[in-house]
Automatic annotation (TrEMBL):
InterPro entries: LysR-type_TF_proteobact-type, LysR_HTH_N, LysR_subst-bd, WH-like_DNA-bd_sf, WH_DNA-bd_sf
Protein name: Transcriptional regulator, LysR family
Similarity section: Belongs to the LysR transcriptional regulatory family.
Pfam families: HTH_1 (PF00126), LysR_substrate (PF03466)
Domain HTH lysR-type: 3-60
Classification via CDD domains: PBP2_CrgA_like
Amino acid sequence: MKIEPQLLKFFSQVAQHGSFSRAAAYLNVDKSAVSRAVAKLEQQLGMRLLYRNTRALRLTDAGEMVCFEAKKIAESLDVLEHYAETYNGEITGVLRVSCSSGFGRAVLLPAIDVFLRSHPKLEVQLEFEDRFTDLVAENIDVALRHAHLLPDSTLVARLLCESPRVLAAAPAYLARAKALDSPVDLVAHACLAYGKKTLRLDKWQFDIGSEHIETLIRPHVTVNDAEALVQLAVRGLGIVLLDRFLLESDMARGALVEVLPQYRPSPGFSIYAVYPARKWLPRKTTAFIEFVDKYLGKV
């Protein structure tokens, strides 16, 4: 009996994900290719491996035994692919990266331009999503995420950098608004806050020397998109407290100016590179993480 190893790899992913669709997404192939591979494996083995219905898949007793061995073979195939990639001179293939839309447009797009000059044969697929993506189910190689603490999971999180925040407003707004001498004065100002159904960032915190100040603002506008907040601030609608990387370009051209610079806003969310835990990382993923780490250190 001759069994094709690639069929076992496809079958092990179906068993792991419990779905032809999710396995196909992970393998980056069509769902029909996965279905054909499993059917062909069942034909070669002469046994049924899966019970199928419209709601779920379930392994047969024979499928459980085959799955145990298939996982080991699939891991060996991945290791061999890794060896081949390691000893091949150039980094090739497809790198799938997920991050928030604000960070992606302000920081990642310029960074990708620099990165691809060093790796011209690599294809990068970017997904800008303001949510925590399921990296395994959606076949993401690495995500750049903002968080104080990441939830426990099967993912690995590497801290890249802290993200300082800035209090800023348009010169036109400051020219017509009341005097602003300390954070407590913010309650009398039009403030622009990030918020959505389950979260509203309306407690703004600052430090000056050893003193810590917390101000509960009354938002003039609440938006669930950081870039929209920047645009509202540029139009003179009020004051924003956001990560510096979101504001730097508008501050550089004078559209926004820093407010109360003597008060240091409490740190924003840290930036992490997050990726699925595995025995090894593909060269493309390692190269990207190392590059972003150095790039953010220079920004």
